[in-house]
């Protein structure tokens, strides 16, 4: 999964990266990645390389087009995944996590197909038990409910707003 940006990201340092994932691309880190979704998508696509298999969450049409072009130019298979169905148990709160989890699941399934010892049971357990502290985390303080969320950029703040509505 890409961190700040794919082209120069630390995630690209390992020579054996057979499976790649891209979550929702938003207007984040504009000072480093570019001022448009398309420019940011080009940077994120820097993880693509010959022989790799990549999975992406749904993207706006212009972003999807950039990712498709970059994958083709770099000899990388790109597959699109839809968010997990509501009936799939997921430990992570937030509607966007169904999309992120679908990318992670597709990546795990591809690694298993390539011979990595990842069982279907382990995948299901990982989805159901995944937790992310500080993202829609519910706590109690002095008997009162508290919601903790470290929404650190505009896309995360928008996701938090949608969940609170």
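Q: What amino acid sequence fits the structure above?
A:
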């Amino acid at each position: 999964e890409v961190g700040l940006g794919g082209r120069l990201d630390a995630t690209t340092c390992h020579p054996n990266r057979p499976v790649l994932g891209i979550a929702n691309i938003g207007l984040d880190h504009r000072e480093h990645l570019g001022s448009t979704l398309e420019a940011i998508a080009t940077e994120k696509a820097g993880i693509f390389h010959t022989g790799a298999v990549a999975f992406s969450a749904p993207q706006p049409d212009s972003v999807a087009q950039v990712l498709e072009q970059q994958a083709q130019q770099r000899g990388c298979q790109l597959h699109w995944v839809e968010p997990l169905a509501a009936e799939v148990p997921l430990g992570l709160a937030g509607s966007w996590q169904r999309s992120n989890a679908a990318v992670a699941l597709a990546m795990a399934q591809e690694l298993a197909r390539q011979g990595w010892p990842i069982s279907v049971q382990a995948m299901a357990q990982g989805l159901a038990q995944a937790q992310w502290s500080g993202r829609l985390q519910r706590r109690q303080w002095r008997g009162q409910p508290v919601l903790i969320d470290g929404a650190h950029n505009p896309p995360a703040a928008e996701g938090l707003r949608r969940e609170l509505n």
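Q: And what stands out in the fold?
A: The chain has two domains: 10-132, 133-165.
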